Amino acid sequence: MEINDNDYKELSPTAIVTSYPRIFTDIPYEKNIYNWLESHCNTEVSLYKNLAPEIEARYKLINNLLDKYNIKQILELAAGYCSRGLIYAKKGYMYVELDLENVSNNKKELLHSIALDIPNNLNIISGNALKKEDFEKVENYFHADEEVAVINEGLLRYLTFEEKRIVAKNIYKMLSKHGGVWITSDLTPKKFIKSQNDALPDFNKNVSNITSRNNLNDRFEDINHVKEFFGDIGFEVLEIHKFNEVKDELYSINTLKIIDDKMEKILEDAIVVVLKVETEGKYKI
Ligand SMILES: C[S@@+](CC[C@H](N)C(=O)[O-])C[C@H]1O[C@@H](n2cnc3c(N)ncnc32)[C@H](O)[C@@H]1O
């Protein structure tokens, strides 16, 4: 399959859609980041305060898993305008963010504007998660003999199964070399979309209008489908966590009281999955 960055550009405004709800959380830097986006980018996309519990939950659940695995080299794919990289780099992690060119350029600019002390171990790279050569660029930042944690939130849902397979194979190659894990909130099966539509009427319709890439047919049927699809590439599913595991940690819910039964259902249906290369690991690609 020919991979062209232009085919993914329309996804970039969704990084503003997911940045906005983080202003209703206690995640550091997020208000400053959103203020910067508001004054420097076209933020004329539909924005949803009620997305805050979902976005905060996935952020915090992924962080909890990163802390548990304690792997000090991180590659975040499609990192968008999220502050995680800055925070983990300040803790001493070697952190690489990969996103499309316009988003990474904005990200570098906004970081310089909101943070005076950007650590050298935070690397914002322009690239495409489907391109092997962009994964090779990332290798320059990692020690060859140390594990890597690959993470992503909000990329695979927009990709066809053929495209998901290409990204997964790039990650497989990296983890086969380094060891480590892939932590992602992007494998939530179809039924979640119904919960999201109930809680946030119009959200999916608007995302589809922005991207023309928000297709229900590109969703996994259920967790068995996830296991089969990634098993075929050579991954093993290590852990599955529901977003509601971190409910008590969510500022949007517990302090700002942004919650109702429908948002509760989102937190029950959405998952974060941890994968690793199968230990029996015959190199399948
Ligand atoms: C929904 S946003 C999520 C951003 C961020 N992870 C967050 O949670 O705020 C999707 C992101 O995927 C990026 N993206 C889309 N296609 C990509 C690709 N092929 N390679 C790398 N990043 C891509 C977009 O530029 C955008 O930043």
Which characteristics define this entry?
285 residues; alpha/beta; Rossmann fold; 7-stranded mixed beta sheet; 14% strand; globular; binds S-adenosylmethionine
What percentage of amino acids are in beta strands?
A: 5-15%
Tell me the series of helices and strands, N- to C-terminal.
HHHEHEHEHEHEHHHEHHE
Name of the level-1 CATH class:
Alpha Beta
Summarize the amount of helix as a percent range. Answer: 40-55%
Structural class assignment: alpha/beta
Known CATH architecture: 3-Layer(aba) Sandwich
Number of helices: 12
Q: Mean pLDDT score, rounded?
A: 93
- Look up the CATH topology: Rossmann fold
Shape: globular
Identify the CATH homologous superfamily.
Vaccinia Virus protein VP39
Radius of gyration: 18 Å
| Order of the strands making up the biggest sheet | 3-2-1-4-5-7-6
How many domains is the backbone divided into?
1
Bound ions, cofactors and other small molecules, one mention each: S-adenosylmethionine
Q: What is the distance, rounded to the nearest whole angstrom, between the alpha carbons of the first and last residues?
A: 15 Å
The number of strands is 7
Spans of 5+ residues with little confidence (pLDDT < 50)? none
Largest sheet: 7 strands, mixed
